[in-house]
# Entry
Amino acid sequence: MSYNEKLVDHYEHPRNVGSFNKEENGVGTGLVGAPACGDVMKLQIKVNASGIIEDAKFKTFGCGSAIASSSLVTEWVKGKTLEEAAKIKNNEIAQQLALPPVKIHCSVLAEDAIKAAIADYKKKNKFNDE
Amino acid sequence: MIKLLLGDEAKMNKLTINDNNKLIKPIYLDYQATTPCDPQVVEVMLPYFTERFGNSHSRNHYYGWEAEEAVEGAREKIANIINASSKEIIFTSGATESNNLAIKGVAHFYREKKNHVITVITEHKCVLASCRSLEQNGFRVTYLSVKKNGLINLEELKEAITDQTILISIMAVNNEIGVIQPLTEIGLICREHGIFFHTDAAQAVGKIPIDVDVMNIDLMSISAHKIYGPKGIGALYLRRKPRVYLQALIDGGRQERGVRSGTLATPLCVGFGEACSLSIEKMPIESERLRILRDRLLKGINDRLSYVYLNGDLEKRIPGNLNISFAFVEGEGLMMGVKNIAVSSGSACTSASLEPSYVLKALGVDVEMVHTSLRIGIGRFTTKKEIDYTIDHIVEAVNRLRELSPLWEMHLEGIDINSIDFTHHND
# Structure
């Protein structure tokens, strides 16, 4: 069994690697997973005044599928509103990268990372939309 | 005349990097998983597939005698390298079958007398699974722990012995970390207590000297494909004096002294025998050559990367194995990054099971460090050129993945990773 081409591309040329200053107001940071489980994802979004995610960055400790999943979602969230980004589902990620069943948890983690980043941004900016 | 496709040993050394230093295919560094057949082994096997195809159990004609002579010659060669008699060698399909046969066979044969078996938590899966099967059948099994260096504590072994103990099964060399258990000392303890000593020596025979008499070994599992022989064949050494009895697992024509029925695979037996002779002949020089390559690899990595940890004892270890944790980098991700070398990882998801290595966990390695480990196995056809390429390749991949790792970033910022409350993810 070899890896899917899109997955390998994201692993070898990960998009948007890096970090924003997490103290900045427009930045939301999501840190999910655990070293003991073999996956840790840090996903950050930068939201502009009109509520659009204008930039995203990630860092991931994990297997190729975890790295590719997080790289992919940084591309997907860019240009989206928080509501739109929150709608990204793990099965879309899994499908795009053709993740095998044992790697589905990587896409779940990527979805969780988006949600965590959005939650952090809203908390910092005192959103009351729940 | 059949011509070999692979050619001679010199050609085997250039399978991955050619004379122009160009990488042709990934460098094979997984010699604990399996080894290629030595071209010399293949050569002696070939006639037994075609013109000398007889059934070694056919007692009444030339073809049978020809095959029988080949099989018995091979049996002799296998016996020779462990100081046994050829009558004590039972051919099997491999070490997994030998381990099943030894453990279940002895326990079931003597079950009216005794019902306790001692083994170690770092044994190969097939030993542990055989012991679990015994437990389901009413036997009691003690699983010894290991020290931080992967070796057993002899005092703990002595304390585990009861008047019900029939068998002690402890592997000679661990398949993940390459550490060598104190066989002579264990054998002595077994003999003193009148307990059978079985050792899974799949990773030991042909790599380190093994003497069944000096070590008081009663049963021993051997595999051909770990020592440059063919896959699909192994052996069980079964002591005759004092005799060890077994209940067979496979019923049939009562071949192999009734212990293992089924027609022998003559070409595989022949290849196995040749592989044994070759490995013992090469052992003194090869061990030293491998040790030099191993030390070069370890030093090359240590010189250029920090936070790198060796798992298992370095001294009491076969020369062809390294098991290294690269902190802050997940092992499976790393394996994908070092795609030009073929290695294995103690991390989850790499094998059929989703659990990270139980062997490394048994050494007390932190679970997160287990996830960062690589097993690197070097062997007969590994060259210095390949080792040097490997050092560069690993260092580059680890550095790249650390740049990608949030744990490395936290470490650089001085954040104690253990202080972070990670959300434990359950899917």
Q: What stands out?
A: The longest strand of chain A covers residues 39-47.
